[in-house]
Amino acid sequence: MRYGFIVVTVVISLLSTSGCSGPSADSPPDPETAKRDSHADYKDIMGTWQIVSSEWDGSPYKEAIGNRFTFREIKLDAWIKNLGGNLVVDYEIDPTKTPKHFDVRASYEPRRTHLRGIYELAGDTLRLCFRERERPTEFKTTQGNFGRYHVFKRAAEEDTR
Q: Which residues are bridge partners to 117 per DSSP?
């Protein structure tokens, strides 16, 4: 235990005297930051969106209407009525694909979930369609494919928590 304290102290000392305070203005951004900065969708998807229509497995899914997704840099904070609260997951978009890709990775005990989807972002409307197995190719679900399709509208500031 005592040696760990000494090692930490030495590392902190070296970092503070070597000028290692993070990336300099001359150093290139990391690849993920560069990717996010290169396409408008990364900026435009940020914020809170509310589900206005939904379907699941080929049928309307009214229970999802009103749920909210808040997109941050790499986290998606989903407020789900049925859960009575928030669920935070990792997400990634790829606007260079056709259709554009949307992926969510979440860990729920005792398993992990990877949802593969597509998205369309047009002004204050966001459409997401996703499944757990294969990625959908169009914005619809059919009975037996266990897909989800949500249409969101950007939430007004007073609508967000």
A: 102, 130
